Here is the input.
Amino acid sequence: MSADKTLIKARLPRGFADRGAADIRATEQMVSAIRNVYERYGFEPVETPFAEYTETLGKFLPDQDRPNEGVFSLQDDDEQWVSLRYDLTAPLARYYAENHKALPRPFRSYRFGWVFRNEKPGPGRFRQFMQFDADTVGAATPAADAEMCMMAADALEALGVERGQYVIKVNSRKVLDGVMEAIGVTDPGQKLTVLRAIDKLDRLGLAGVRALLGPGREDESGDFTKGAGLGESETDTILEILDNDSEAEDTIASIDTRLANSATGQAGREELEQIALIVASSGYEDRVVIDPSVVRGLEYYTGAVYEAELLAEIPNEKGQKVVFGSVGGGGRYDGLVGRFQKEDVPATGFSIGVSRLQAALAALGKLDTSPAPGPVVVTVMEPERMGDYQTMVTALRDAGIAAELYLGTTRNLGKQVKYADKRNAPAVVIQGGDEKARGVVQIKDLALGKQLAEGITDNKEWREERPGQFEAPEAELVDRIREIVASAGANDSRNNPDDDGDRV
Here is the structure.
């Protein structure tokens, strides 16, 4: 190496993460389980690119020279601003508007992939993460919203989350707008403060929300958050609607009473009533509940909004047991497609935060992140016979067995076996000149060898016994290796549903 060579520091950009084989395989298992549920409901796959014209994303229309607020953007060769997608919903709206004449209506599709947010990263908060969405475009009925909620419940259960460990909460933006009408809030800034206060109900309780709706709240550290400045009467109206420790029928009745004079609120109440009826008739009433505190952050929601929450307690970054909270959500966005067409098109959808949910499932022991069985390794004792070793590897691969030829530089058998261990190989194949002359191979069953070696304490005995190692005719190589691989697969929980049936 040249003494004056400038080295580049190997470093990962903030807010991004590398992923290893176990993590990738776990994601693939999750995606497969979710896909099976979505397709059972009649949804079909669609894929949109990572990048869209910035104006397509809607919420982030550029009003400055470089539109990087919240998104990653670049200018292409014809000076058009292009941004990495912020979510999977806005690209779907563009896709439907561009292809609607060739698509059935309603159009039911699912998509999964990476999304990107140009925001400050933090613990568990990344700038790149995966989502899995399902959307129905062209259906105005609340039955489409109810179906999304029931499908979300089925997806969580398919991933091993048991009933009682999650809940799908449903509200309507029309109810929230009706609340604003009822209490006379018209200022956009005050309205946002009220919604943010409502959104904190799960964390702060009714007393904490009351303070934020009124003059403000001081937390345990002494920090003060300014409130919305509502009076007692307005605050009581909101809290009486939010107090939802009752059945759906009673919650909806409370909304009816408190928002009797709001046409918008009544429209939202009617939607929730229909959703609750459909959910109950399908047997999901204990899993999908009406909850007027659900707000959802994106501005394009126009009707029903819903959120999937895990109720199980999971250790946070500090080791404290906390309720994990939201792992997905969605809602009705009847105006989003209309940005591209003369008329609005009704649409509703649900998005699972795959990256976030994967972290929760791993913490709950619902996700198998152990290394998958690796390939059989054919060792190289005599490099001049590389063709013979490659013939064995090819025979194994032709039989459908994952296999690789050792391509390192060492001829030391022990180091090659250690390499196979690191690859989680079920077996290694050994053939020196003597074995070749006799037409045999040495096969070492690595898993069995480890078990047998546990009872051997003397090093000399271990070398003499060669636990797990046996000799076989070269013609029987494939059959003997197949037996070992089958045994390893039977002992792997991913291939043995009786071992732990509720793990993905």
